[in-house]
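As a warm-up, study this chain.
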Amino acid sequence: MARQPRVKICCIKSVDEAQMAVNYGAAALGLVSEMPSGPGVVDEATIAEITATVPPAIGTFLLTSRQDAESIIEQQRRCRTNTLQLCDAVPEDDLIEIRNTLPGISIVQVIHVVDESSIDEAVAVAPLVNGILLDSGNPNLDVKELGGTGRVHNWDVSRRICEAVSVPVFLAGGLKATNVREAIIKVRPFGLDLCSSVRSDDVLDEQKLAGFFDAIGKRLAD
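Now compare it with the structure written out below.
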């Protein structure tokens, strides 16, 4: 039987949404900074405000589309999250600089699962980061898709990535209450990441949130 993975609720927009997600059992929260496309973007002042209210044991992920060490480091220092989620490819030298400059901050690299080449991409970056997040974006489009698409990608490829790397792997992309058990069994990820399936009219929906956690047996709230 597949173990229950940790859950990251992304696109958090307010202190109230953060508290709701944590109350239901979220182990991590995603806070989306400026992106070329996709939902959930909030300004850095709001990210810092939310992060300051989150218990230390909860992961606070700063989603950034930046690709150079200097601006990523500066952004983290403004937002004060304990994790960086790099939504686009970052050169190896920059990853090393980020790790050396921010030794207490976890780095999670997003791999957009397009085809089997994504396996090689994940294997190459894994030694340089603390975790990998598999999503359904496409960074090769004229307007990059770096997440929040609500699409399911090829879980067979995702499973192979989980088996090929030694760092924790989060699975994202079209997860919802009706398919999450299948995803857990098929991919066996360390964690799950979701956004659109637990929101209504761009607001975190408590009923949908409860339904998702019920589906994986991890609901904590009364």
